[in-house]
Specification:
By secondary structure, this protein is an alpha+beta fold. It is 28% helix and 38% strand. The strands form 2 sheets. Strands 1-2-3-4-12-11 form a 6-stranded antiparallel beta sheet. Strands 5, 6, 7, 8, 9 and 10 form a 6-stranded antiparallel beta sheet that branches. The longest helix is centred in the N-terminal third of the chain and has 47 residues.
Length: 264
């Protein structure tokens, strides 16, 4: 009797599965390469735009070539370049010239065109002044006589002005604390407290004793900024005077908005 042999079934689907697996791997590799190229192109575009913005700012403000200027961009730059407009550009720098003063500044402009000649904006700006710069600003502004040449200290939320006042031929130290703010595009200083020598003065006594009204004193700064920039708020934060400003659409391209304002 001959032995019975069993035939084992041979699977036929293994090779096609390997081919399909290799196909998926190849597709994933291609996608990874495409994404890597897109990311590299985006990084390159951001670097070029940042460099161009920085170079323009340095040239416009006549800053030293190595002056630190930080430029930030939002969103996907390649798509914005294709559309011809950058969604938002943020610029930060210290010791930026404003008139004859130097301040730390943060600026953000929206809808910035890639091509010259088109209007950009609107935007916002923040200027930060140290006590010495505030003192310089006030020294160049018309103020009541007792405040002329006063030294300045910043103690949140007040600006403290110190000077001397003549009483019966003697010099008596006077200190006036004011709260800063914005009014009609200028810097408003509202008295909050005062001392004459060791005596505290009420707000009602300010005018009678040292000739200062308890009403806000406004310092015009429009002649130190382009006409397209308007002061919106001022406060003391820590040991800095922080001024917030609005930037009108077209300030970068309209010569009239770039001219310094005036104090009427």
């Amino acid at each position: 009797m001959e032995p019975v042999t069993a035939r084992m079934p041979i699977p036929q689907a293994e090779a096609p599965r390997r081919r399909r697996g290799r196909g998926w791997i190849a597709l994933v590799v291609v996608l990874i390469v495409v994404i890597a190229l897109a990311v590299a192109a985006e990084f390159a575009a951001r670097a070029v735009v940042r460099d161009q913005v920085r170079e323009r700012i340095v040239n416009e403000l006549a800053l030293p070539a190595d002056h630190p200027v930080d430029v930030g961009l939002e969103g996907i730059v390649l798509l914005q370049l294709a559309a011809g407009t950058l969604d938002a550009v943020r610029v930060s720098s210290d010791d930026v010239p404003v008139g004859d003063m130097a301040v730390d500044a943060d600026v953000e402009l929206t809808r910035v065109p890639v091509r010259d000649g088109a209007a950009a904006g609107p935007g916002t700006g923040q200027l930060r002044l140290d006590p010495a710069t505030v003192e310089q600003l006030l020294a160049q502004s018309p103020l009541p006589q007792v405040l002329a040449g006063a030294s300045v200290a910043l103690a949140e939320p007040e600006v403290v002005l110190s000077n001397e006042f003549t009483v019966l031929g003697s010099q008596v130290p006077v200190e006036l604390a004011v709260t800063p703010g914005a009014a009609d595009g200028g810097l408003a200083l509202t008295p909050t407290r005062a001392t004459l020598g060791d005596a505290e003065l009420s707000l009602d006594q300010l005018a009678a004793v040292i000739g200062i009204s308890p009403e806000p004193t406004t310092v015009c700064i429009a002649d130190r900024m382009p006409a397209g920039i308007a002061l919106t708020d001022v406060s003391v934060v820590g040991e800095q005077l922080v001024a917030e400003a609005s930037i009108a659409e077209g300030t970068l391209s309209d010569p009239a908005l770039q001219q310094l304002g005036s104090c009427g």
